[in-house]
Amino acid sequence: MPPKRGRPAKATKKTKAGTSQNSKTESLDKPTSKKTKRVTSDEDSNDEPVSKKTKVETKKQPMNKTATNLDNIDYECQKTNENEQKYNLKICSWNVSGLRACIKKNGIDYLLKENADIIALQETKCDKNKLPEEVKIPGYNDYFVDSKKSGYCGVALYTKVKPLNVMYGMNIPLHDDEGRMITAEFENFFVVSVYVPNAGQKLVTLPKRLQWNKDFKEFIGNLDKKKPVIICGDMNVAHTEIDLTNPKTNMKNAGFTKEERDDMTNFLEAGFVDTFRQLYPDKTGAYTFWAYFNNARAKNIGWRIDYFLVSEAIKNNVCDNVIRDQVFGSDHCPIVLYIHL
Question: 56: Cβ–Cβ under 8 A, 6 or more apart, which residues?
């Protein structure tokens, strides 16, 4: 996700108009002298003294929701793919921004309702030896990888069908020590759950991010030579200007730099497809991440940085890619892929 920013400082009464875009300072009348003048207009016959401060009613801002109504979601897909086939494989991906916190917000209840064949979770922030019992979901094989740094990164993969093989990381210690990727091999395809590094505040880790992009592209390319690949997770980049609310002001911020966006373009040109943009090339306001502060989610000020990327060989097998923006419990929402394989 883009680097978390602190909450804006509260404006004081002396704040000048226009100094802060998000200023919520109420306007104040100048205080009167102790000897108040009486009102002489015909509209006020009671001759009430003028108050020292006049309260100005401000429009109530929308508040971020925290609870999900699971009964209001349609978990099925009636759409068919280019070959007029209905889906036979459903994959759910979600950056949970802390697995234990998500569990407390009924995240597991949502996953049970979704009932996907494969579940990919990112940013679990939980050491494998400290996983709570609630992470066990009946009917699934589960796989976890954590970071050497406690409470950092981490990804998980749940599968109803046991994979032929499971790989952790890219066999590159620089990346693998942070626990950012799990790859599961099935009979006809690979699934990769990935949490891509962030370029950081003031782009301090951009070089590390760009090295990851290079190594990840090579790793996935080698998999693609064997069988098609489905990549699901937090790619930490908004690829185009319609993939975030405020592109102009984020050109030099992590997740929307030219370097990161160019690398995503190069990756797709190597033989992969952004399934959401394949189906909805011009759709705006479709986001998967919202900052916690300033009620960004309620206002839909967000970024689309979570993806399902698939090999070109299976792009026409995709039935739909759904953004579950009504599911709460994290600063990201889940995304769901329906595909026939």
Answer: 26, 27
- Measured CA to CA, the distance from residue 58 to residue 182 in angstroms comes to 49
Any idea how long the chain is? 341
The set of catalytic residues is 195, 234
What tens digit of pLDDT does each residue of 232-270 get?
Answer: 999 999 999 999 999 999 999 999 999 999 999 999 999
Q: Is 0.85 surpassed by the pTM of this model?
A: no
DSSP string spanning 251-301? TTSTTS-HHHHHHHHHHHHTTEEEHHHHH-TT--S--SEE-SGGGHHHHT-
Report how far apart, in Å, the C-alpha atoms of 133 and of each of 103, 128, 137, 159, 249 are.
10, 11, 9, 18, 43
Written as six digits, the tokens of 61 are 């801002």
3-class DSSP assignment, residue 216: helix
pLDDT at 128: 87
